[in-house]
Amino acid sequence: MTDIRFLFRHAAYGLGLSLAVLGFVPSALSAQQKAASAYAGSASCLDCHKKMAAPFLESAKGQQLMGRPRTEHEKKGCESCHGPSKQHANSGGEERGDMIVYSRKSPTPVTERNAICLQCHQKTARTLWKGSAHEARNVACTDCHVVMHHESERGALKKSSVAATCGSCHQQKVAAIQKNSHMPLGEQKMECTSCHNPHGSPNEKLLIKSSVSETCYQCHQEKRGPFLWQHIPVAESCANCHDSHGSNKEKMLKLSRPRLCQQCHPTGHGSPVARATDAAAVRFTYNKSCSNCHVNIHGSNHTAGAFFTR
Fold this sequence. Notes:
Blueprint: H1 2-37, H2 42-58, H3 60-67, H4 79-82, H5 86-90, H6 110-118, H7 133-136, H8 141-144, H9 162-166, H10 171-176, E1 181-182, H11 212-216, E2 229-230, H12 232-236, E3 246-247, H13 259-262, H14 272-276, H15 282-285, E4 299-300
Antiparallel strand pairs: 1-3, 2-4
C-alpha cells in the first residue's frame, strides 16, 4: 500500500511538472512573437525617411548594416539602433511607442541611448566610458557623433574636426588656442585626443597618460630627465609654469619672465636674485630674461651645478 501511494505521489508530481513546462513554452513563444511583431522593418522606415537616410545608405557603415549585416541584431537594420517602430509607423509618425530617438530634446533617457551605441562600440578607447567624467555629466554619444550625415572624414563627428567638436562645450579652451602661443590645433598638427580620451580615463582631466607631465613627454622627450640637477617645480608638473592650451606669453608660460621665476625665487634681502637685480648688476640683466643665463631650466647634467647655466 505504501509503495502504491509513493508511486502515485511521484506520478502526480511528474504530471504537474510536465503540464507546467508545457504551459510555459507557449507563453514564452507568444512573448517572443509579440516582441518580433513590434518591428516594422527598414523598408517601412524608408517610406518616410528615405531622404534623411540617403547619406547614411551611401556610407560604408550604411551599406554594411543594410546589405551585409554581421549579427542577428544588425539584421534589424534601422531598428537595430532605433528599436521597435511598428507603432510609430502605423500611427503615421504621430506616436513614438518604444522607438529610441537620438535628438538633443529626445524623451529617451541618455543612458538608454548610449547603451545602444555601446552594444557595438565598447572596446579599446571606450572601455572606460562607465563612470567617466562625460558619462557622469549625462553626455550622449550623439552630442559628439552623428551617424546619418556626419561632417568629419573620420569618427562620424558632428563638426568637421575633433577640436571643433570638443569646442562646442569647451569654449574657454577654444579661446585659449586663439592666443599668441598655443597648442597647434588650428594648424592640424595635433588634436584634443592627442592628450585627452573623451571616452574615459582613470587619470585626471581625461588624460591619456598618468599625469600632465607624462602626457607632455609624448612630444617633449628631451624635457623628461632624469637629470643630475633636477628643477623641482619642473619635475613636479609642467603645468606649474605652462598653460597647456594657450597663453599670450611666449612658450605658453603662465607669466612673463622674470615674474614667473619670482613666484618661487623672491628678490628680498639676502636672496641671490636680489644680487642679480641690484644697481651694479642691472646693466647686465635689464630687459633680459632669467633664461638668458639659466638656459637649462628644465634640468641639467652639467658639472656647473644646480644653477642650470649649462
